[in-house]
Design a protein that fits this description.
The chain is α+β, with helices and mostly antiparallel strands and 218 residues long. It has a domain of 124 residues. The chain is 33% helix and 29% strand. The chain has five helices and six strands, in the order αβββαβββααα. The protein has a six-stranded antiparallel β-sheet. Helix 1 packs antiparallel against helix 3.
Length: 218
């Protein structure tokens, strides 16, 4: 239930904020400079997960370090939250590529004169986690309340038929009523109860012969 409320709040928030969590790692390899990155972002009613890499020659990467884009100091996780521009552009899907009801899977592999970019992205609308985490618990709660209400009125859990005349089995659907729990006393408790009953009985029963002596005195 809490996950459903959280995803619903994120759904509403996505229409005026672009939230993203990035993981980034820049490194030097034998083929040149490599940037590996993954991120999850939420925007305009949906979310997407993207992972990929960029490869550039050492000389290009060395030049671009001055622009503070490539840097081996950039590593780890980062959270960003930016306002939606006007008009909004931060769609969670690639609008120029095929998608069905907000679901989309994209594989991009591009090469220009300096950089080779490879990227895989999967997107889905926010109503999917909201429905999964909120609607399902709500239906379970509704069924539980209805079942307890029927039991309190002596009705069948399955069809709601009145079982006051036939408590052993529902004549309408054949369902058996829920078994009642019966407390079975332990042997020690049972012995103690029998001993207490004997003492209580002895207090009310006169000893043998007591009645005859009373008659003789009279």
């Amino acid at each position: 239930m809490l996950l459903g409320l959280a995803s619903g709040a994120l759904w509403v928030r996505s229409y005026w904020r672009i939230d993203a969590v990035f993981w980034l790692n820049d490194a030097h390899e034998s083929t040149g400079f490599v940037r590996r990155q993954s991120w999850v972002d939420s925007s305009l009613g949906g979310f997407s997960f993207t992972t990929g890499s960029e490869r550039a020659p050492e000389e290009y990467a060395a030049f671009d370090v001055q622009q503070k884009y490539y840097s081996t100091e950039k590593a780890g996780f980062e959270f960003t939250s930016d306002p939606q521009p006007t008009p909004p552009w931060g769609y969670f899907i690639h609008r120029d590529m095929p998608h069905v009801l907000g679901f989309q899977f994209v594989h991009i592999d591009e090469q220009d004169e300096n950089v080779h970019c490879s990227e895989i992205s999967a997107s889905a609308p926010d109503w999917l986690p909201t429905g999964t985490f909120l609607v399902a618990p709500a239906l379970w709660l509704r069924a539980t309340v209805r079942r307890r209400r029927r039991r309190s009125r002596g009705e069948c859990d399955v069809c709601g038929y009145d079982l006051r005349a036939t408590p052993e089995r529902c004549p309408e659907c054949g369902a058996l009523p829920a078994a009642r729990t019966v407390d079975i006393p332990s042997p020690t408790h049972e012995r103690r109860s029998l001993a207490a009953d004997r003492r209580q009985h002895a207090k009310h029963v006169a000893p043998k012969g007591q009645g005859d002596r009373g008659d003789e005195k009279r």
